[in-house]
Amino acid sequence: MSADEMDIGRRRFLTATTAVIGGIGAACAAFPFLASWAPSVKARALGAPVDVDISKIELGQKITVAWRGQPIFIVHRTPQELDSLALVTNELRDPLSKESVQPKYADNVYRSIKPDLLVLIGICTHLGCVPLYKPEVGSVQPGWEGGFFCPCHGSKYDMAGRVYKDVPAPLNLVVPPYQYLNETVLRIGDDTPPGAA
Hints:
This protein has 197 residues and is α+β, with helices and mostly antiparallel strands. The protein contains 3 helices and 9 strands; from the N terminus they run H-H-E-E-E-H-E-E-E-E-E-E.
């Protein structure tokens, strides 16, 4: 093998090696730039749907998760709490939720897809305070069947988030869009059926 052939082989090797290393360097340099185009964690939290594992929510328990910067109450209602809904109908401002905000699938006495699981935006419809969960009978006043109580101005809601008469809040608590992905996962912020555009 002549010296010229060795130089050509060596030149090809060095050229290929330089091209590969240059390509890797360009990819490494481009990654942060391309990643900066993705929405931030804060932006995703403000608008993206939130998936919640509901398998560990015990009967009578309420958990709170955040969606779009708002508290979302998820309550696993007991049979007694479901029975209480009929007991307070005459005391409610909008018992059939005709003036309130909820998706069509929650336009029922339970204001939910499944009777035992309630999903609400936990913001009082009066001035935006966060109501307290008061499920204990009689804990707010005599005859109280359980529900939500706003300590700021005294607004009261039943175990379906329906507002009582003679309180400052004008409307029932809002039901956000949601769906069940399976038996244990609830998605808040998206109720588009799978496969729909």
